[in-house]
Amino acid sequence: MATLYELGVKHKTDKTYVSTTHNLSYLHIYERLFASLEQYEKIKILEIGVRGGNSVNMWLERFPNAEVIGIDLCECDFEVYDPERFTFYQANQTDLETLKSIAIKHKSYDIIIDDGSHIISDYIDSFYVLFPWLRRNGFYVIEDLNNNYAEWNVTRVTKENGDGSEFDNFQSFLSKYIHLGKVFDQKQAKLDVFSIHQYPGLMVIQKDLT
Question: How far is CA 109 from CA 65, 68, 175, in A?
């Protein structure tokens, strides 16, 4: 079977880009992380930001047992590798009620990827809406975190994200939750965050294994 990177090149997704700080793409990292999901008869992937369908088709070909749900501001006008296993919603991730209704409709997910606006407040709000619907041992991924920091570039996104301190505070909260759990914050006890993994340009949050 072809690797995610090979399929990413085939379908021309930008997830094949090699990090400027380390000689790896997102797909090299995902190949190792998501291999554990192949034991399941069926998996479900939700991705925010699927414009062009490149990553959608990569997921569908790499995981023939997967159902993929895509969300994007733009219409779904691309050819889908396997239409029967793909569901698309045209929506803004800032519309949290719509985001929640999509999550409820499909009930649970093995992988959730936020490749949407890259605005810190959207990252955080979307996480709190969607993470409760992640299955045990599932992976919640936030991509392109280099956009959080003013040192990276001077684009609109970076200006909105300021110096990245809002995201740093979010990461600090999750870390504290892992170590202290309900003792730390009863209100967020339903999160069941087990671990946080940092990689070049992205963060992966894993749910409790049991």
Answer: 13, 10, 22
pLDDT, one tens digit per residue, over 68-117 is 999 999 988 899 999 999 999 999 999 999 999 999 999 899 999 999 99
pLDDT tens digit sequence for 7-36: 999 999 999 999 878 889 999 999 999 988
Burial class (CB in 10 A: 0-12, 13-18, 19+), 50: buried
Domain boundaries, the chain: 40-207
- Of 28, 106, 118, 179, the catalytic one is 118
Helical H segments across the chain, by residue range: 4-11, 26-34, 54-62, 96-106, 120-130, 156-161, 165-180
Residue 190 CA to residue 182 CA, distance in Å, equals 9
48 neighbors 125 (Cβ within 8 angstroms) = no
How far apart are the two ends of the chain, measured CA to CA in Å? 30
118 is catalytic: yes
Which pLDDT belongs to residue 185? 65
What are 131-170's pLDDT values in tens digits?
Answer: 999 998 899 999 999 888 877 766 666 778 888 899 999 9
CATH class assigned to 40-207: alpha beta
Q: Please state, as a whole number, how many other Cβ atoms lie within 10 Å of the Cβ of residue 55.
A: 27
CA dist., res. 177 & res. 47, Å (int) = 25
Please say whether the beta carbons of 50 and 57 come within 8 A. no
